[in-house]
Amino acid sequence: MIRSDIQAKTLDLVFGAIADSTRRSILDRLRSGPLTVTALAEPYAMSLNAVSKHVKTLERAGLIRRKIHGREHSCQLDARRFEEAMNWMSYYTRFWSDRMDALEKHLANKQKRGTK
Amino acid sequence: MTTQTVTIRKMLAASCEEVFDAWLDADGMREWMCPGPVTSCEVAMEPRPGGKFRIIMTAPGTEFVNTGEFRVLERPSKLEFTWVSSRWGNQETLVTVDLHERGTQCELVLTHERVPHKHSAGELVEGWNQIVGKLAKHLGIVPEPPITTEEVKENL
After folding, report:
1. What is the count of structural domains for chain B?
2. Number of A:B CB contacts under 8 A?
């Protein structure tokens, strides 16, 4: 149940990557399947180069993988990294929740000892 | 400013003073700071603003070192301290414990946030916590249920 250290740097990359609405939109669109960078860029009012930069940020964070077929770059979602980032929150939610239960017991025991 | 944040609420049948003091009692803390697989817990602290603490949790085959510094100690309503855990790559995070008097009880609200990186602080959008949850669902990941608020236990 205890996993090895997850690189804080990795988490920062993931959380930084999804802090941007265009990048969230890109992730959302890739849910239905891989798309080329050109196809990805289509609905956005920005240059192909700008979209490509967003793709690179997502790629660096490990959220998507890029495959090169000749001239076309096809992007695919990689959900594993995302799961790692979620683990930080679920770990601490459980950790503090359990600690607070233990604190409750501790306080009750202390009060019992005090009144005796 | 909202970053990845964990919030836990707990109603405790004690005064806020008792709850506050429990956070600064190193001996007592050993009894409640040990998570599941941890077999021993060593606590050392300097209970004053700017004071440091160190909590070493030993589990079979592994050891976690949690250190930090008390930033705010306002008895009986607020504690704030940094939290650096070897479990998570020794990144500095921030824990705030707010205590509210509720009749004869004390409501504890613990907020644990990851101190944002300087370069990304401006980028991080509000309410992204929910976004993450939604996105995870969209991506087909089934994360642990994102319990952010604990049900207040009924007093028997």
Report:
1. 1
2. 147
CB-based contact B139:A82 (threshold 8 Å) = yes
Nearest CA in chain A to B85: A5
At B69-114, the pLDDT tens digits run: 999 999 999 999 999 998 877 888 999 999 999 999 999 999 998 8
Backbone angles phi, psi at B18, to 5 degrees: -65, -40
Which of A11, A24, A107 minimises the CB distance to B18?
Answer: A107
Provide the whole-model pTM.
0.63
The chain B residue lying nearest A24, using CA atoms, is B135
Indicate yes or no: CB of A107 within 8 angstroms of CB of B90: no
Domain that holds residue B97: 5-33+70-138
| Max CA separation in chain A (angstroms) | 81
Query: Which residue among B37, B90, B123 sits closest to A16, beta carbon to beta carbon?
Result: B123
- Domain tally, chain A: 1
Determine how many CB atoms are found less than 10 A away from the CB of residue A22.
14
